[in-house]
Amino acid sequence: MLPPLTPQGQSIEKVMLAGIRVCVGWVFLWAAIHHFGNSAYVGGFLSHTRTFHPVYGPLAASPLLPFISFMVEYGHLLIGLSLVSGLFVRASAPFGILLLILYWTAHMSFPFIGDPNNLLIDFHITYAFALGLCMVRHAGHAYGLDGLVARWRMTGEHPTLRWLTA
Q: Which residues pair with 109 in a beta bridge?
């Protein structure tokens, strides 16, 4: 177990957690903004997968593609807004981790990820671990709205809200 942080260390940790949360949130938010309303982007992405092409490829020509595109676009948007604002980080981080792991498998040309410079590990895994850290360390309380909402009386009375902002 790690020793407790000094007050100065706690302040630095808070700033670092907020920075990680906002940076990863911006990545999701930018993905939502950049590809919003373009279902061809999702179809193109799915049709160019490599190692797991038998899993992802058929989805590109599936009648489910509009639904998948909708879920990806709004998933990026909601995860990004949650992380940037620091609201419901505990709920959005697992969905972000799931998306990142799916993208990681989609970029594989086993054992390389994307290109020969990334052997098994790339930014998708790094971001997934960063989101896991944000979830475990309650990064929404570090200059985020989770800390504010957690103090509301209504939050204390409703277990679901308490869990979301914990």
A: 112
d(CA 22, CA 32): 15
- What is the overall mean pLDDT for the chain? 90
d(CA 159, CA 166): 10
Asked if residue 125 is part of any domain, the answer here is yes
**Cα–Cα distance, 146 to 138 (Å, whole number):** 8
Which strand (E) or helix (H) includes residue 115? strand 115-119
Query: Domain limits at 32?
Result: 7-164
Q: Domain total for the chain?
A: 1
- Whole-prediction pTM: 0.90
Within-domain flag for 1? no
Report the alpha-carbon distance of residue 145 to residue 49 in Å, rounded.
37
Task: List, for residues 43-73, the tens digit of each pLDDT value.
Answer: 888 998 888 889 999 998 899 999 999 999 9
> Buried b vs exposed e over 133-160: b needs ≥16 C-beta within 10 Å?
bbbebbbbbbebbbeebbeeeebeeeee
Three-point CA angle 100, 105, 109, nearest 5°: 135
Nearest to 46 by CA among 67, 31, 66, 60: 60
